[in-house]
């Protein structure tokens, strides 16, 4: 009997917080074998445990202070990523996880400094400029004002950037040189790719929560709460960054492209039956995974959805308070007039008669469009427009197809590509162990 439950996603998978390149998939930590704990039966606590309700969300990590303001400002970033739809009961859970993340960031920065690895303010600022432009669509100055107005600050985002740059450089120096991948391993994978040509690959996202028999019920209940928040518009990527215990948490849970045989059986069974943008909670080795199907494709074959489009968009919006009945004639006229378009050269003139805004876009992949538009764009003759698309809230628009370039023939993953991917997988595993050791050796005082 299947024990997973499903929720279809409506919101976009992209998120504000994805700052690092995607790494390869890992379902659970392959930690080194450890001795069992010797806990005698019949013992009793000799002192009262500290009251978790009294502990404040501040800590001192090897002498470095993390304040409540630090936690508040990082939490505000999560609220922004979730479009202000984070309920009060989720705030407390996020605060606890954010504090742990800030502690880990402190350990990463401290370890890099101890190894004489420096990340300059100029480097952080340069990286932040790209984040401001790509994720916030604002200048640095405007991003500063925006974050401040939402209860956050550029300082907390820059701290996160510094930690990630510091950690990546530390791994490049202390871990990567000692990672070995043989030519035979690479050749075996390339041969396997060749034999699986035409089979299906899945682009998956994952939020992995570890569980033991003792806390399984609590962990599964927590997974359901996360699913409910994502269903209500929460960011899958933001939740993955804060709660996932897999190595892919840093990239918003992105597992990349995988084949079913690369997954544990329970995850493979679920993925095979999922639809795009669907999320499934399914038991996984050592816990539970919230699995998101982002996309699927055929291995080493050309996918028409990789075709590149040149589009012209015509859009109109509706005044506040206008009803659907009042908008009906406007939509009807917009639809009739835009269907008269014959070539992008006539679109601008028709747009003027409709008082519509016009936007030209090149280099758009079919697969990057909303699902309802993808097949339409594959079938639409060049020079014609789509049916109207949109809503009363967002306005309606049509897209005129000015050009469509077929995707280039798929090339086999190169030897160097496979080598690099295997190295990254092993670096990720070693990185988890490295951070585990830093946590064990740290002196952390909670206030």
TrEMBL record:
<keyword id="KW-0574">Periplasm</keyword>
<dbReference type="InterPro" id="IPR027304">
    <property type="entry name" value="Trigger_fact/SurA_dom_sf"/>
</dbReference>
<keyword id="KW-0413">Isomerase</keyword>
<dbReference type="GO" id="GO:0003755">
    <property type="term" value="F:peptidyl-prolyl cis-trans isomerase activity"/>
</dbReference>
<dbReference type="InterPro" id="IPR000297">
    <property type="entry name" value="PPIase_PpiC"/>
</dbReference>
<feature type="domain" description="PpiC">
    <location>
        <begin position="199"/>
        <end position="297"/>
    </location>
</feature>
<protein>
    <recommendedName>
        <fullName>Parvulin-like PPIase</fullName>
    </recommendedName>
</protein>
<feature type="signal peptide">
    <location>
        <begin position="1"/>
        <end position="28"/>
    </location>
</feature>
<keyword id="KW-0732">Signal</keyword>
<keyword id="KW-0697">Rotamase</keyword>
<dbReference type="Pfam" id="PF09312">
    <property type="entry name" value="SurA_N"/>
</dbReference>
<dbReference type="Pfam" id="PF00639">
    <property type="entry name" value="Rotamase"/>
</dbReference>
<dbReference type="InterPro" id="IPR050280">
    <property type="entry name" value="OMP_Chaperone_SurA"/>
</dbReference>
<dbReference type="InterPro" id="IPR046357">
    <property type="entry name" value="PPIase_dom_sf"/>
</dbReference>
<keyword id="KW-0143">Chaperone</keyword>
<dbReference type="InterPro" id="IPR015391">
    <property type="entry name" value="SurA_N"/>
</dbReference>
């Amino acid at each position: 009997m299947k024990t997973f439950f499903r929720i279809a996603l409506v919101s976009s998978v992209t998120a504000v917080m994805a700052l690092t390149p995607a790494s390869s998939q890992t379902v659970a930590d392959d930690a080194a074998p450890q001795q069992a704990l010797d806990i005698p039966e019949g013992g009793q606590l000799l002192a009262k445990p500290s009251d978790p309700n009294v502990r404040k969300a501040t800590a001192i990590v090897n002498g470095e202070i993390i304040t409540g303001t630090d936690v508040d400002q990082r939490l505000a970033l999560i609220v922004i990523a979730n479009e202000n739809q984070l309920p009060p009961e989720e705030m407390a859970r996020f605060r606890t996880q954010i504090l742990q993340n800030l502690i880990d960031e402190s350990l990463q920065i401290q370890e890099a400094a101890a190894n004489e690895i420096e990340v300059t303010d100029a480097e952080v600022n340069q990286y932040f400029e790209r984040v401001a432009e790509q994720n916030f669509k604002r200048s640095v100055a405007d991003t500063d004002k925006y974050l401040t107005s939402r209860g956050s600050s550029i300082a907390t985002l820059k701290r996160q950037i510094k930690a990630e740059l510091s950690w990546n450089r530390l791994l490049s120096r202390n871990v990567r040189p000692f990672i070995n991948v043989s030519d035979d391993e690479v050749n075996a994978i390339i041969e396997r790719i060749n034999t699986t040509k035409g089979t299906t690959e899945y682009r998956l996202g994952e939020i992995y929560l570890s569980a033991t028999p003792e806390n399984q019920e609590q962990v599964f209940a927590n997974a359901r709460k996360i699913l409910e928040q994502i269903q209500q518009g929460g960011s899958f990527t933001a939740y993955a960054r804060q709660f996932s215990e897999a190595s892919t948490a840093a990239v918003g849970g992105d597992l990349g492209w995988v084949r079913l045989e690369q997954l544990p059986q329970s995850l493979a069974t679920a993925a095979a039956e999922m639809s795009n943008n669907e999320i499934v909670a399914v038991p996984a080795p050592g816990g539970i995974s919230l699995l998101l199907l982002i996309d699927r494709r055929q291995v080493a074959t050309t996918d028409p959805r990789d075709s590149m489009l040149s589009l012209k968009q015509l859009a109109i919006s509706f005044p506040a308070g206008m009803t659907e009945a009042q908008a009906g004639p406007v939509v009807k006229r917009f639809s009739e007039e835009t269907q008269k378009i014959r070539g992008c050269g006539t679109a601008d003139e028709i747009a003027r008669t409709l008082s519509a805004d016009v936007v030209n876009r090149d280099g758009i992949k079919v697969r990057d469009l909303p699902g309802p538009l993808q097949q339409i764009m594959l079938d639409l003759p060049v020079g014609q427009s789509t049916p109207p698309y949109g809503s009363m809230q967002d306005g309606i628009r049509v897209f005129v197809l000015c050009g469509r370039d077929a995707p280039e023939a798929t090339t086999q993953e190169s030897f160097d590509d496979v080598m690099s991917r295997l190295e990254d997988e092993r670096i990720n595993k070693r990185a988890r162990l490295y951070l585990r050791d830093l946590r064990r050796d740290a002196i952390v005082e909670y206030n």
